[in-house]
Design a protein that fits this description.
By secondary structure, this protein is an alpha+beta fold. The protein has a single domain, classed as Ribosomal Protein S5, domain 2 (2-Layer Sandwich). It contains four helices and four strands; from the N terminus they run H-E-E-H-E-H-E-H. It has a four-stranded mixed sheet with strand order 1-2-4-3, sandwiched between helices. The N and C termini lie far apart (about 40 Å).
């Protein structure tokens, strides 16, 4: 299970991400993301939860029967949990897996999620003006 501090839970949060971003595409998933503003609007109890990334998954009924949808969600949650350290920015991400996720081997799915997270982190770094300096060569 993804930690509650790293999950999108409310419908309104999903809607904000959809409105603030454009659909991006990867091979096995499409995704939306939005950089959150500083935690000034949140209460102190929620301040710590809003510092890192939050991830939401959507798997509609068009993806198959409940057994297939639940399997897709389990696989996606496991891949997200493994690759979550790649995201450090306070960003909200909504992932829409494609039906082919059910047949893809798990290491490929993990690489796909890692590529999506790296692309999001790079986009956020570009828009916020953060430049990461490479480690000095030894």
């Amino acid at each position: 299970m993804i930690a509650p501090t790293h999950r999108l839970r409310k419908h309104a949060d999903y809607q904000l991400v959809y409105k603030a971003s454009r659909k991006q595409f990867a091979r096995q998933t499409s995704y939306f993301f939005m950089l959150r503003q500083p935690a000034a609007q949140s209460t102190p109890a929620h301040g710590a939860a809003l510092e890192g990334p939050r991830i939401g998954l959507t798997v509609g009924k068009a993806m198959g029967k409940a057994v297939d949808r639940n399997r897709i969600k389990r696989r996606m949650r496991a891949a997200v949990r493994a690759q979550l350290p790649l995201l450090t920015a306070p960003v909200d991400v909504v992932l829409h897996p494609k039906p082919s996720v059910i047949d893809v081997d798990f290491p490929t799915l993990q690489r796909e999620v890692a590529a999506v997270f790296r692309a999001i982190q790079q986009a956020v770094d570009r828009t916020s003006g953060v430049t990461r300096t490479p480690a000095p060569a030894q």
